Amino acid sequence: MIKVGDKLPAGSLQEFIEVEGEGCSLGPNSFDISQATAGKTIAIFALPGAFTPTCSVQHVPGYVAKADELKAAGVDEIWCVSVNDAFVMGAWGRDQKTAGKVRMMADGSAAFTNAVGLALDLTARGMGVRSQRYSMLVKDGIVKTLNVEAPGKFEVSGADTLLAQVRAAA
């Protein structure tokens, strides 16, 4: 499992772009993780799946609500990562009103999730391989904080915890 001080693994994540511009076409676009994190402070939170109860009622809304505070504290971007395709993540972002606040980053084949060692096998529950619930603060591609939830819990990966860590690190 990835740990504080480690560099994020090479690879890419996809985002559904609603409005064409800045070199991005409409629809799914792929982003190189190393390039997207270079010189930036990124708050990343990951969760098991789009439109699932805890993810939709607590996890994403918390980051949407705290987006301005996170950015005022020095976070350049907030990413929500889930093992879903970019179309689903785009639809979920519209539903959660994340535009301009949280980038909904798809890890459709779980390549990033497996590379950071935070995969969760929910095959027995009909969901396949998903991501564990966690949050991390990443500066210039290096993990500065990491908060991994115990199975079935939502206690340490929310926006309030990460915001307190960002402020403490400032």
UniProtKB/TrEMBL annotation:
Give the CDD domains listed for this entry: PRX5_like
Q: Where is the Thioredoxin domain?
A: 2-170
Pfam families linked: Redoxin (PF08534)
* Highest taxon in the source lineage: Bacteria
Keyword annotations from UniProtKB, A to Z: Antioxidant, Oxidoreductase, Peroxidase, Redox-active center
Catalyzed chemical reaction(s): a hydroperoxide + 2 glutathione = an alcohol + glutathione disulfide + H2O
Keyword hit for Transit peptide: no
Record-linked PROSITE patterns: THIOREDOXIN_2 (PS51352)
First-level EC class: oxidoreductase
**Keyword Oxidoreductase annotated:** yes
Could you say which EC number(s) this protein's record lists?
1.11.1.27
Q: What does this protein do?
A: Thiol-specific peroxidase that catalyzes the reduction of hydrogen peroxide and organic hydroperoxides to water and alcohols, respectively. Plays a role in cell protection against oxidative stress by detoxifying peroxides.
Q: Which family does the similarity line name? A: Belongs to the peroxiredoxin family. Prx5 subfamily.
Name it: Glutathione-dependent peroxiredoxin
State the organism named in the record: Pelomonas caseinilytica
